[in-house]
Amino acid sequence: MAPPRTSRLTGFYKLGVLERRRRLLELAGLPADGFAAVDPGALPLEVADGMIENVVGTYALPFSVAVNFIVDGIETLVPMAIEEPSVVAASSNAARMARPRGFTTALTAPVMIGQIQVTHIADAEAGAAALRAATPELLAAARRLVPRLAERGGGPVALDARVLATSGPDGGVVVAHLHVDCRDAMGANLVNTLCEALADKVAGIARGRAGLRILSNLTDGRTVTVRCTIDDAQLASDDAAGPDVRRAIAAASRFAELDPYRATTHNKGIMNGVDAVLLATGQDWRAVEAGAHAFASLSGAYRPLAVWRERASGDGLDGELTMPLAVGTVGGALHVHPGARLALELAGAHTADRLAALCGAAGLATNLAALRALATEGIQRGHMALHARGLAKAAGATGDLVERVAAELAASGDVKADLAREVLARLSASHVVKESP
Ligand code: NAD
Question: What is the pLDDT of residues 149-158, one digit of tens each?
Fold first, then answer.
């Protein structure tokens, strides 16, 4: 499928759901019933029952599309599934600020790490040395186990060994890392299968007992770096000049670099965008979460995954995010989940690299939006305005009453469900009176 001719969809948020679908079908070149994949009940119970255990139903989340993204020069629709208001709006807004250059990405090869633990080695250093010496033989054996992956240009690419203990309750302990290029698969099952198949051979060479054999979710060999540049003019808000916002965002970035309490929330803002894309596209988001936070701590201190610097030219900001992103466009839940397949189609993500690039771009976008809001009016105004709209709808408001109830709620500063019902009752009553002849 060709990329959409544009993702710059002005006023998309004001359209009704059916009109939004119509525009996306046309832009993405999907068949007329394309969105049936995310209609209620689209995941049949019997399919769900085959996915996990003890199934008693399916569980829905809003499925949405963030607009305005350009990633590596390509106009891109970014599917998101998330329960939290404002993430889609914030990322669309930040992606608009990043235009026309958009986001650029650089990815490492999609290499995952499989761990084979060997315990009870009398001489752990000698065991590790023996494994290093046997690397060509072990890699050849590993490659023979995954010939199809090798044909696709992937497969086992390296092996190393580390001593974890020379003595102790488990004796001498060595861990062998098998590095596997998983191409378009996330690769957990693939790597686990390889580790299990090689474990006895590895233990024999190291002269110990085979222990655990499973991938590591600290996929620091499979990272994406995303960059963008935002001009001062884009940063300006109704109440704040661009250069002031630029300085405030750079200061907020330094705050996160100095303080793990702040860095955690900074990274949560990044994961808002990343996780929403992961969920929509059927990925193992727990795996990415675990890897992201371990990666953020690799220096010994918990650090922000993205930083923002004032540009040397004095106009605008440079943002840069680097994080591990183990995702797949084959395998996992993708062969059974219709919504996830639709999301990949909408995004035009046919390779794991492209999907990782989009996830990273979404993360950098939500990070920028959060920092800009924090640096200007505070996060709550926009958040509460969107939350108010949700409450107005939940109270039963339809048509123009949604915006009127939401506006009154937001202005009152008391954005609560019971007030939404009260305001709706009052406005509905006056609505009827006004319309009476
Ligand atoms: P998978 O088991 O479905 O394997 C993917 C398969 O796709 C490969 O065996 C390969 O033969 C095939 N394939 C077809 N085209 C390919 C291409 N272009 N590139 C690469 N492979 C291609 O999936 P997986 O990715 O090995 O494992 C992912 C699943 O494992 C996820 O559901 C995840 O939740 C689960 N899992 C995760 C963990 C963890 O993260 N700790 C542990 C166990 C399982």
Answer: 999 999 999 9
CB burial of residue 347 (10 Å; 0-12, 13-18, 19+): buried
Pick the closest to residue 37 from 356, 336, 347 (CA basis): 336
Residues 304-316 have a mean pLDDT of: 95
What is the pLDDT confidence band of residue 382, given thresholds at 50, 70 and 90? low
Q: Taking residues 62-75, what's their average pLDDT?
A: 98
CA 184 – ligand 1 centroid, Å: 9
Q: Which distant-in-sequence residues (6+ apart) come within 8 Å of 115 by Cβ?
A: 175, 176, 177, 178, 195, 212, 213, 214, 215, 216
Average pLDDT of the residues in 280-291: 98
pLDDT tens for each residue of 3-53: 889 999 999 999 999 999 999 999 999 999 999 999 999 999 999 999 999
Measured distance CA(219)–CA(324) in Å, rounded: 6
- 19: Cβ–Cβ under 8 A, 6 or more apart, which residues? none
Residue located via tokens 């009398």: 122
Q: What pLDDT sits at residue 264?
A: 98
Q: Write the DSSP assignment of 111-178 as a string of letters.
A: EEEEEEEEEEESSHHHHHHHHHHTHHHHHHHHHHH-HHHHHTT-EEEEEEEEEEESSSTT-EEEEEEE
What atom of ligand 1 comes closest to residue 331's alpha carbon? 3
Structure tokens given for 343: 């999301």
Residue 84 is a catalytic residue:
yes
Q: What pTM was computed for the model?
A: 0.89
Nearest CA to ligand 1 atom 21: 185
Mutation to probe ligand 1, out of 111, 182, 186, 212 (largest number of atoms < 8 A from CB): 186
Distance set, CA 184 to CA 243, 278, 291, 292, 351 (Å):
42, 15, 18, 19, 6
Asked if residue 332 has its Cβ within 6 Å of ligand 1, the reply is yes
Is residue 102 within 8 Å of 73, Cβ to Cβ? yes
In eight-state DSSP terms, residue 255 is H
Assess contact for 353 and 106: CB atoms under 8 A: no
Answer whether residue 434 shows pLDDT above 90.
no
